[in-house]
Amino acid sequence: MSLDKLKLSKPLVAAMTDAGFLTPKEIQAKTMSRILGGQDVIAVGPEGSGKTTTYVLATLMKLKYAFEEAPRALILVPDAEHVDHVLEQFKLLNRNNTFRILGIDSRGAVDAQMNEITDGCDIIVAVPDRARALYLKLALNTNKIQLFIVDNAELIVKKGLQLPVVELANSAYKSQHVVFTEVMHEKLNHMISPFMKDSAATVEVDEIGEKQAEVYPQMLYQVPNFRTKLNLLTLLLNDTEVFDKVVVFVNTRLTAQTVYKNFNHNKEGEISIYRSLFFDDKGYDDIEDFKDNPDARVLIVANENLGDLNIEGIPIILHLELPEQKETLIQRIVKHGEEEVVAITFSTDIELIEVKKIEQAIGQKLEVMELPEDLKVVDAAAKPKKKKTGDEDEESERGAAFHEKKASNLKNYNYSAGTKAKMTYKKKKGLS
Q1: What is the DSSP string of 277-309?
Q2: pLDDT given for residue 30 in this prediction
């Protein structure tokens, strides 16, 4: 497809060509006509898929002419680094400086930024909290905003900046809203639902790279929070037949201690910690001792200052937390020889962006597993209720920390991780 298919102006086509963009990206081809047509859009795509260039082009096309006092496009990004990146993209494509573009973040003084805005600008690229502060000081006029864009929305949610985004979006009530993100999840949807129109189009581009290496079977559990992770871990590990030798990875030794204390240690030495913080906890300083002990079933390992750890021979690798560097996880799941290993990852909504990066790196998607029906899902936002007596409904007896599973989670045609692992084990041990 040529750039002409995007129906850009001749100056923009020339600018794109000069910048080395000779053909449009898939996300540009799928969203540009919708944005230019005035539709609200949610665009989902991985890093490098062309999201920033898409809305830069759309903004320059939509505004058409320059030099008005009040801004007509407001672009919210998660931090100062992203402000700089977007300004560079505008500089690349805004030939002859047709539009006045202003970057707003915490590096500048509020008073100076107020003066810059009142001097007049066409496009503002800002972090949400500073933009809100300027709006509350009546420096940022949102009445003429035509295009309200949220970029890297998943990172904005991760930073806890939802409130200023929603407030600014609602203040720009006449505008078209466009959201770009690498992943969609419940918390992000909660942020954008107050201002996105019902007619908004969701466009998803899933550009998984070429498969880089053979990896063990990958399973992914998506849960709302760490407390639910612990509940799920306990539930899975209760199946001693399947999970008979497991390494559970967490990020810090303190978290390892928390996970260890979460279990009922009915059988001495069944669950232990690798290089424990406290001498009175059951632990191992050498993983080979754990492998050799038939009574040792679960070893909790912290990534903190871990170095190399030989986990060959361990049939189940479980990442309760995603390590800071995706390479740490990837090197553990690369297949060695013919040994049969199941790799299970737990992820909250906030961690899904890291899951996406892992999928991009290994060139394949992790299989999302159905949550067990008897899993207690903790609602971190709910306030505990007092225990009731007498005739109560079942939901009240369960308490505020429990909520019914969504209909989408009640499917019964997918095998759970435990069932899949059990099938693998039975085959491996000649039991079927």
Answers
A1: SSTTS-EESSHHHHHH-TT--EEEEE-TT----
A2: 93
